[in-house]
Amino acid sequence: MSIDSLKSALGDFAKDIRLNLGSMASDESLTAQQKYGLMVACGIASRNKTVKDAMIAEATPHLSAEALTAAKAAASIMGMNNIYYRFVHLSSNEQYGTMPAKLRMNVIGKPGVDKADFELWSLAVSAINGCGMCIDSHEAILRKEGMTAEMIQTAVRFAAIIQSAAIALEASE
User: Does the keyword Calcium apply (predicted)?
Assistant: First the structure.
């Protein structure tokens, strides 16, 4: 399934979502690797098989095998980290913030792609998963890596569009 077939599966109520999905591929504010890696990571984070499959099908011709693997890794590792660090952030017991996480996260240090690209994908997944602590951490790293506010906002916009496609698809079924 491609983005076009995903758009056609959405109900008439989701016209804005279809238009937003259509605009992602033509966005030129990010590199191809950044853009298509976002599609993969956010598609996986949407937890909707149809959306995930469409995003991976759209992105695969534009990504190296290493970048495709790294985008999948960003979604996976953030699935773990977002739960843990959202708990640490939201818990009124400050002791959890002083305790070691004891979670393996080696892929963050060696993602197999440019660090900024991996961080951008991780930020977008963190936005989908609602972890403010992770959003702040990844955004700070991206700014140090030279990413502009516009580039970061584009990544979160992609996350919002992809997540809304999953919701609209479910509403269409």
Answer: no
Write the CB contacts of 154 (distance below 8 Å, at least 6 apart in sequence): 27, 29, 30
Break the chain into its structural domains and give their ranges. 3-172
Which CATH fold would you assign to the domain 3-172? AhpD-like (1.20.1290)
| Per-residue pLDDT tens digits for 97-120 | 999 999 999 888 899 999 999 999
Dihedral, 80, 108, 102, 159 alpha carbons, nearest 10: -20
The verdict on pTM exceeding 0.85 is yes
| Angle in degrees, 0-180, between the axes of helices 49-59 and 149-172, rounded to the nearest 10 | 130
Residue 153, amino acid: Q
So which residues are the catalytic ones? 131, 134
**Cα 77 versus chain centre, distance:** 11
Whole-number Å distance between alpha carbons of 159 and 39 = 8
